[in-house]
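Predict the 3D structure for this chain.
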Amino acid sequence: MKIGRNKFVSLTYQLRVNGADGEMIEETTVDAPLEFLFGAGRMIEMFENKLEGMAAGENFQFGLSSEEAYGEVNEDAVVDLPKNIFEVNGSVDEEMLAVGNTVPMQDANGNRLNGIVLEVSDEVVKMDFNHPLAGDDLYFSGSILSVREATEDELVGDSCGCGHSHDHSHGGGCGSGCSC
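Done. Predicted structure below.
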């Protein structure tokens, strides 16, 4: 079976930044593979395009430019926020606002975003809402472990209550930071 829309894919990969010899920043293994519903919009579009048509047992190696991956760094995504918006019950958790921490937030439309704390002053928190890999060229190498038809649960959405779309399996956790 070949990778295509509504197929459930399991694969291993190494992710390097800025070329095949660049720093390895992520790796999945046979024991903890990346598993996802192909075509569900959860993966980088060009990542899926490069994998489409492959089958179990095939190896892959390809690069994605920053434009094809997470885009260039957007200076408008670095913002100063009033420190008081981080108050809970009248106080700010200073440990949460440590420089370098990633803080989950929502925009005015309810969209979830993660911001990296860059600076903290008495009144302002400077945060970067760019993806951590914005501006980086990515290089993937790996192997397709399996390709199968997606189950009805995987196609319809979140029926387990994990809060995530069912474009992932639950055998060893969904890998999206939830506890399913």
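Residues 7-70+134-156 form a domain with the Chitinase A; domain 3 fold (CATH 3.10.50.40).
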